[in-house]
Amino acid sequence: MRLSGLLRYLALIFAVATTWLFIREYINFNMKTFRLPRWMGSAHKNSSQLVKNKCGLSKSCPDNFFAFKIVSGAANVVGPTMCFEDQTIMSPVKNNVGRGLNVVLVDGTTGAVLTQKSFDMYSGDASLLTKFLKEISEDVLVLVASYDDPGTKMNDEIRKLFSNLGSTHVKQLGFRDSWVFLGAQNLKSKSPFEQFLKNNPETNKYDGWPELLELEGCVPRKV
């Protein structure tokens, strides 16, 4: 009995020691397995140091330039968004956008937002937009984004007024086209800040509407 008891005791010690060694090796293995690589660790440390550019632009704007981003509406479901100097002026979240043309006026010297309005170009009164455009002064920047239908009520007078702001594509703007634009009065040349996409059943991304457009950049401050 004494010999068998001793053997059982030794077997117990061996089992405990073997189990302890296994657990130690397993823990060390897992710690090594889940340790982050150096580059990931440094990236995590530097993530808090990243600088967010105004309006989410991919690059920051130089001095004496304003940052802006204009996103047109998507079909008749999601309204447009307009950001200027990191301030979201019009968006579906703000619930201040409308069908047709959405327009923001900004002081070209200070960057202060002067007003924002939407004009129903499907069943609204086009003369309201005509009057609005005629009253824009030369030191004002004009941001425009389409939503749903910007062209049904478009007429020659409105096209000419937008052309005077530097638009190239307003001449062909029609039913359910997508359009984003930034301009100002009496530009010496056409505005470089404009995108246009024609409503075409063969190329439309949505059922009855072209894809939304996104325009971003840096516009010089008026001195």
SSE topology sketch:
Layout: H1 2-33, H2 38-47, E1 65-71, E2 81-84, E3 87-90, E4 100-107, E5 113-119, H3 126-134, E6 140-147, H4 156-164, E7 178-184, E8 194-197, E9 214-220
Antiparallel strand pairs: 1-2, 1-9, 2-3, 4-5, 4-6, 6-7, 7-8
Helix pairs in contact: 3-4
Report on the structure:
The model is unreliable at 25-49 (pLDDT under 50). The protein is of the alpha+beta class and 223 residues long. Helix 3 packs parallel to helix 4. The chain contains 4 helices and 9 strands. It has 2 domains: 1-40; 54-220, no CATH class. Keywords: Disulfide bond, Lectin, Membrane, Secreted, Signal, Transmembrane, Transmembrane helix.
Question: What is shown here, in short?
Answer:
The chain is an alpha+beta fold. It has 2 domains: 1-40; 54-220, no CATH class. Helix content is 27%, strand content 25%.
